[in-house]
């Protein structure tokens, strides 16, 4: 894999319930909305589960995802191709934490920061991003 090893840990407060945060992270219909312009393979289940695999694209760069853990308050995804590493999410009432580490030519910290900003917007402005 070409690139450099990068890692980042970010935690934000959000004005949202634990359940709303969980749905936003585990349901593809939800995360497709706030992770735009990242695109995802079709045919994903209604909710991510352990062993779910899917591909996302950042422009022309594919990232293969394999869900290693999906629980009430946590999600761990192993990644390969465009990023070789992992992404962990943990959440509770009013907060979300993201930890990512891997080798990539993509600016991982920038992508993580933008994703958390979009997630916060998604969670606090339901009229712009309605829950399905």
Q: Can you put this structure into words, describing what you see?
A:
The chain has 132 residues and is α+β, with helices and mostly antiparallel strands. The chain has a single domain (4-124), classed as Alpha-D-Glucose-1,6-Bisphosphate, Chain A, domain 4 (2-Layer Sandwich), CATH 3.30.530.20. Helices cover 25% and strands 42% of the residues. Strands 1-7-6-5-4-3-2 form a 7-stranded antiparallel sheet, covered by helices on one side. Helix 1 crosses helix 2. The longest helix is centred in the C-terminal third of the chain and has 17 residues, at 108-124. 22% of the residues are buried. The model has no long low-confidence stretch (mean pLDDT 92).
CATH topology: Alpha-D-Glucose-1,6-Bisphosphate, Chain A, domain 4
Helix proportion: 25-40%
Overall tally of structural domains: 1
> Superfamily at the CATH H level?
START domain
Main sheet record: 7 strands, antiparallel
SS summary, helix count: 3
Would you tell me the structural class of the helices and strands?
alpha+beta
Q: Can you tell me the residue ranges where pLDDT is under 50 for at least 5 consecutive residues?
A: none
Strand residue content: 35-45%
Q: Any idea what the shape is?
A: globular
What is the total tally of β strands? 7
* Mean pLDDT across all amino acids: 92
Q: Radius of gyration, Cα only, in angstroms?
A: 14 Å
User: How do the SSEs run, as a string of H and E?
Assistant: EHHEEEEEEH
Give the second-level CATH assignment, the architecture: 2-Layer Sandwich
């Amino acid at each position: 894999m070409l690139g450099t090893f990068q890692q980042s840990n970010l935690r934000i407060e959000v004005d949202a319930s634990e359940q709303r945060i969980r749905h936003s992270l585990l349901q593809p219909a939800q995360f497709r909305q706030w992770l735009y312009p990242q695109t995802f393979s079709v045919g994903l289940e209604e909710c991510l589960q352990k062993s779910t695999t899917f591909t996302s694209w950042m422009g022309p760069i594919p990232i293969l995802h394999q869900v290693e853990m999906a629980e009430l308050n946590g999600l761990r995804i192993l990644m390969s191709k465009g990023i070789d590493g992992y992404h962990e999410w943990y959440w509770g009432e009013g907060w979300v934490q993201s930890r990512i580490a891997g080798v990539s030519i993509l600016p991982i910290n920038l992508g993580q920061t933008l994703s958390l900003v979009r997630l916060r917007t998604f969670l606090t402005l339901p009229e712009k991003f309605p829950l399905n």
